[in-house]
Design a protein that fits this description.
Length: about 325
């Protein structure tokens, strides 16, 4: 097995409050990690700090599930209550967002506009097999730029208000487009973000929407069949999104680890898509973080490619320094 320098070699990485969060995530992939969870609790934890880390990294549902199911006998009822109460808001919000996702999907199907849901409750279902194991605060959709005016009309009729300049809805291929087309529902205050080939500017090259739609897969939820991006396209998107935000949250890494473990991945196609998008190193970094932090299995050839790319390992070390508190993740783009 190819070995590369990893998390366990990073100074300060062994802080138990951070490690128990990692181990709870790992336990979703390798049940043997549950024993490490119990050991860490036995050895003593700063409980408020451990919960704060779980909240910061959007891991509270996973941490609560693993500790409640694995180590409830080792913690006090008050400690378990703290975890449960930290999880409750995201659980309620997640179910409301799921209902709204299905509602909006029906509206767009009725007018025959291809709107592709991704991330949010859809990723929770495909990667985690549960709508409450993953935290999400809004809904994300992809649609061709030319359909944005139609999407505005549909969403306004459903009680949503655009959160952008009305002129931007008619940007087409040449006008000024926002970073995303955000809509807020009233009175529920649900945020729905619509992304197009023009707004997804954090990809190294413009995305080819037509190419993406040739690989769509179908997911059935609540009796509805929804089309979403292929596992391979989703993995590339998640890696690019994580890189855009400097991998500040462990939850984003766990998404990749769970998706790559729960679903069959065409690794050759995955690397081809990343190469076409000029995102190979971004993909390798995301996959390596998922492998090193959460034990996501990777093909040997990918591990060998990572071991040859010193930059991927250096970038991973920078990410680990943020998690360990050695560097400040809020320092801004330029220093990082």
């Amino acid at each position: 097995m190819t070995e590369v320098r990893g998390w366990r070699n990073t100074p300060g990485a062994a802080r138990p409050e951070l490690e128990i969060n990692l181990c709870c995530g790992r336990a979703l992939i390798d049940p043997a990690a549950k024993e490490r969870v119990r050991l860490l609790i036995r050895n003593g934890l700063n409980w408020p700090d451990a919960v704060t880390i779980a909240e910061r990294h959007r891991l509270t549902p996973v941490v609560y599930e693993i500790i409640a199911g694995t180590a409830q006998d080792l913690i006090s009822p008050a400690q378990l209550t703290v975890l449960r109460e930290a999880t409750a808001p995201s659980t309620a919000a997640g179910m409301a967002l799921l209902r709204e996702l299905l509602h909006l999907h029906r509206l767009f199907e009725a007018v025959q506009i291809l709107v592709i849901p991704y991330k949010g409750p859809l990723l929770a279902w495909v990667a985690y097999g549960s709508f409450i194991r993953r935290e999400y605060l809004d809904l994300d959709f992809a649609v061709e730029q030319k359909y944005i005016p139609d999407a505005v009309a549909v969403l306004k009729s459903a009680g949503y208000r655009p959160q952008f300049d009305p002129r931007e809805a008619h940007a087409g291929q040449h006008g000024i487009a926002p970073g995303q087309y955000a809509f807020l529902s009233h009175p529920q205050k649900i945020l729905a973000e619509f992304h197009t080939e023009r707004t997804l500017r954090y990809f190294p090259i413009p995305i080819d929407f037509q190419d993406l739609t040739t690989r769509l897969m179908t997911v059935e939820i609540g009796g509805q069949r929804l089309r979403t991006f292929s596992i391979e396209d989703t993995l590339v998107m998640l890696c690019v999104h994580g890189a855009k935000h400097f991998w500040e949250r462990l939850g984003w890494v766990l998404d990749i680890a769970k998706l790559a473990t729960a679903q069959e991945v065409d690794w050759t196609l995955l690397t081809q898509i990343a190469a076409k998008m000029e995102s190979t190193r971004v993909l390798l970094l995301g996959l390596y973080l998922a492998h090193d932090l959460f034990d996501a299995p990777l093909p040997e050839n990918l591990l060998e490619e990572i071991s040859r790319d010193r930059t991927v390992q250096e970038l991973a070390e920078k990410v680990y320094e943020q998690y360990a508190g050695i560097s400040d993740p809020s320092a801004g783009v330029l220093p990082r």
